[in-house]
Amino acid sequence: MAIPLNVLETITIATPCTVPWNEMAGDDRTRFCTKCSKNVHDISEMSTTEANRLLSVTNESVCVRLYRRTDGRVVTSDCPTTLRERTWKWLGKRSTWAATLFGMVFFSGCGSETQKKLQGGTCPIRENSTQNVTIEQ
């Protein structure tokens, strides 16, 4: 029985591509390089399992874009990061939700005073009004 090898621990890039990632057509995960006419896969957008499968299943050379942490580990989408990075990532995904909740909690009291004024509770125009109005026909 074969022992599965984590290919990400042994991967090396002999000659990096000179074409910038932003100049390639495609999405965040895979882009097409016109120089070498191959798909370039971003390992940081894949899980560890997906990246290992991509690198070990294919018999031909695969073009990849990867980042290494300071400890030498290849960054994947499920790679553990620092607490600060995880917190900012979590907040970034929930910023719309957080803004809505903030608005509901802190601005919910604003409407109650306005409604009291409209219902006649305390209307400054009625309390201080001593003007006579004449309507001509």
Could you please describe the fold and organization of this structure?
The chain has two domains: 72 residues, no CATH class; 29 residues. The chain is 34% helix and 10% strand.
Please give a quick description of this structure:
With 137 residues, this protein is an alpha+beta fold. 34% of the residues lie in helices and 10% in strands. It folds into 2 domains: 7-78, no CATH class; 81-109.
Query: Treating each run of at least 4 consecutive H or I residues as one helix, how many helices?
Result: 5
Structural class: alpha+beta
Count of beta strands: 4
The value of Rg in angstroms is: 31 Å
> Which term fits the overall shape?
elongated
Question: Largest sheet at a glance?
Answer: 4 strands, mixed
How much of the sequence lies in strands comes to 5-15%
The strand line-up of the biggest sheet is 1-2-3-4
Count of individual domains: 2
**Helical percent range?**
25-40%
How far apart lie the N and C ends? 103 Å
